[in-house]
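Q: Hi! New to this. If I give you a protein sequence and the SMILES for pyridoxal-5'-phosphate, can you show me the bound structure?
A: Yes, paste them in.
Q: Okay, here:
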Amino acid sequence: MPGFEVFGEEEKKEILEVLETGVLFRYEFPEQRKGVWKVKSFEEKFAAYCGAKYGQAVTSGTAALKVALAVLGVGPGDEVITQSFTFVATWEAILDIGAVPIFAEVDETLNMDPADLAKKITAKTKAIIPVHMMGGAARIEEIVAIADQHKIPVIEDTAQAAGARLNGKGLGTFGKLGTFSFDAVKTMTCGEGGMIITDDENLWRQMSEYHDHGHDHVQNPGGRGGEGRSFVGFNYRMMELQGAIGLAQLAKLDSMIATQKQHKVRLKAAAAKIPGLTFRHEMDESGENATFFSFFLPTKEKALAVNEVLKAEGCGAIYFAGNTWHYYPKWEHLLGGKTLAASGWPFTSHDKRRVVYDPAALPKSAAIIDRLLVFQVPIKLSEERLTQICAALEKAAAAV
Ligand SMILES: *Cc1c(COP(=O)(O)O)cnc(C)c1O
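A: Thanks. Here is the predicted structure of the protein with pyridoxal-5'-phosphate bound:
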């Protein structure tokens, strides 16, 4: 699955170009950097690859979500709808901006259920964040259509879906803004890092300012110290070494995905022999990035039984219903409103918790996630290991 598997000479060469100038920083040092602007070039190339006009690099995928929410004007008291199956980062960013995360059900795309989204929109909803989990598209066109009816902007959390498309159009380009992560486990990595893409020049300018302490980046005789500012910001700057790695990884992205797809075809064929098994609903199988292979059994008991056989063969699958980082009922710190702030912020305003989360509030998601098994699809997968996993799947088919 992750780009770190193919870290090699190309990344080293890019990094060396930065080290030779000694300019580790995204801004300034025009003479010393000898024309080397790795982050800037990574932003331009990544945006173009996805089919967007602008890219803004930041320090992480979580920062990307935070910056996206900030430039949409989201703040305390607002509600932001996301989905029950995602990484904690999605709602951490919503909380960090002071807003209230509201959770919609997922369907068999393993992403946001548009019908449930429509039910959860209120006058307070100021943004919607569907997630393209595990490299496969959400029902993004339907979601954007619902959001448009209510004039609510959509941020696509595309952290897990770099390089994925829906009918030829890059994920992350359907909503107002699309966010990406380049952390250790993502399809391509910079060590750490994130990106926001958009076609909206004004939003892009605001992101460029907000992520850099409000610096307006307008040329002036005083240099960086003489730059103006229109609003308060923060520091989410990416450094040149990350940009350098990003450029090398981006150049490999299509080939990484192509290899994963070949591996996935083999796994799918072996799994298909398990009675009653169904596959994740793919919106566009040829467009997904094949970082994961997901399937359902008819019942929770069957899913657990199949996984017992797989485990006994040394090939256990991920059972997300038992995973504490990606699934709503398992987020006890969120459900319990646990925070370091003595005031209870961001869960409280006026000393009262604004939303009390019921672990049983999302039964449709539970009925889906409880039956789900998932394999990561590595890039470097030996024929031996692949054969072993396929044999384990066939053994499971015979046992259940
Ligand atoms: C990884 C991830 C993020 C956060 O990315 P970081 O770079 O680790 O901050 C956000 N959303 C989803 C769905 C992710 O998987």
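A: The pocket of pyridoxal-5'-phosphate is lined by residues 60-62, 86-87, 89-90, 131, 157, 159-160, 181, 183, 194 (CB under 6 Å). Let me know if you'd like me to explain how to read the tokens.
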